[in-house]
Specification:
- The protein is mainly alpha-helical and about 130 residues long.
- It folds into two domains: about 50 residues; about 60 residues, no CATH class.
- It is built from five helices and two strands; from the N terminus they run H-H-E-E-H-H-H.
- Strands 1-2 form a two-stranded antiparallel ribbon.
Amino acid sequence: MIGNIANLSRWEWFKLRRRWMLWILLVFAILFAQLAVWGQFFSYRNLQTTGGELTVPASLQQQQGRAPRTVACNDLLSGDPARQPPDLDAQVVAGLAAQCRQQAATLPARLPRRSASCRRSPSSSSRS
């Protein structure tokens, strides 16, 4: 009985090795899984570098008719006039900065640092 099962499994493996569609589908499944992982990674890095982004609607821009655009919160909160958008009114920039401060309050939850279990204390590394 066990010999029959071994022969059957060997025959099925022989057939699977020669069928390309199965392997092609496996490659596509792996690629899509990696796509999700890399998408989350780059989203995380973008959130880290920009501090979040806000969309400035066309109605708030001084030049009417322009398409809505995004502004990085790190630029708004930097206090550096060179990094702030020059074509926006000061009140609009102040309102956007207030929204960025609200987003910055939620950033620690959205960008978790190393957990306490991952950190090593000096006393735990000296134990043998």
